[in-house]
Amino acid sequence: MTREAAEKSVSDGSNTKRTAGTPTSRPGGESGGGTTPPVLEAVEVTKIYRMGPTEIRALDSLSLSIYKGELLTVMGPSGSGKTTLLNVLGCLDVPDSGKVLLDGEDVTRLPEKARTRIRLRKIGFIFQQFYLIPTLTALENVMLPMLEAGLSRKRAAERGRSLLEEVGMGDRADHRPSQMSGGEQQRTAIARALANNPEIILADEPTGELDTTNAGMVIDLLRRLTAEEGITVVVVTHDPRVAEKGTRTINMVDGRVV
Ligand SMILES: Nc1ncnc2c1ncn2[C@@H]1O[C@H](COP(=O)(O)OP(=O)(O)O)[C@@H](O)[C@H]1O
Ligand SMILES: [Mg+2]
Q: For residue 87, which atom of ligand 1 is closest to its CA?
């Protein structure tokens, strides 16, 4: 299943092109005759961390609908629950109550294995610290999720090269992370996030380690993915200049959207 999807994305020649999406300018708004269903939805999600006798409500009955082609930016003070929200939306973490719907399917309480499969196929993650594997080249890092999804080495390498070209790293395919700047590492991480043709990219402070120029380049790249390829992107950021490139911004305080 995963394998076929991944193979198809290579063999039909659409490896770096997706059907152009229709960015939703008015999320949830009526367009013509009906309302477009959200790609990703949190419904009254609560996540509590218990530290001895203390309870921390990292997410407090939070509801949020995210639409295809949006670049949603999430702002809020440290500790307001932004990372927890991404983890719950991305099937990395299970809420205590409430549910998460991905393409209308309730993924909240699926068995771990099923959630892992969905995550691998539909969601790409980007992190502040890049998390590239230091002993592997850019190309090998980008190939990893494809190999995990069952693609052959040859096809993974082909698609990996074209993704690196898409993010402007075509001439750095054989460099290791230590030989790249922060901006180049993050662009490689974006190529890796795109490896299995995800519908959704979740990015946790992706420009936090970058200077202004590189931060701008990364956010412009994410913007292009939403506008041209209909990928839905959620970006947690502290940087108002990053947030203003999004199509919509939400603010979090104490586990809630305010
Ligand atoms: N694994 C954990 N164990 C206990 N508390 C946690 C854990 N992860 C997050 N928290 C707490 O949950 C709250 C929200 O954290 P987080 O989602 O990381 O916020 P943000 O990303 O906005 O800084 C914070 O009070 C944090 O200390
Ligand atoms: Mg965080």
A: 17
